[in-house]
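Continuing the batch. This is chain 6 of the set; chains 1 through 5 are on the previous pages. Same settings as before, nothing changed between runs. Recording input and output for traceability.
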Amino acid sequence: MTDSVFTRIVRREIPAAIVFEDEQVIAFMDAGQVNPGHVLVATKRQVETVMELAEAEAAHLFAVATRVAKVVQATFQPEGMTLLQTNKPAGWQTVPHVHVHVLPRYANDGAELVWPRKDPPLAELQALAARIVL
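Output for chain 6:
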């Protein structure tokens, strides 16, 4: 696997505005700020998707994302907050390295998340749910 841009940030080969770092994750300002305070929280270990993380790694990633979101909320006072984690290109992932966007939001800020609702009947939802065995 080729090193991702995030791995290169972890190794300090690419400069970044880092807001938090520990042994497992790194949080830094998104270079493509949608709104002021837009932070990315990424694993230090390069894996492409959340499905490749152990539960403890995923829990830590989202715990740090939650901490960052609370500080961004207190600091920037946005009207809302979107935490977004995407996987694989068809799932809107643009960097093949698991990460969470902490995105402060404002009404009419131009950021959109749109998908077509299918609204299947309850029986179909129940059949789909039965296929998901944890």
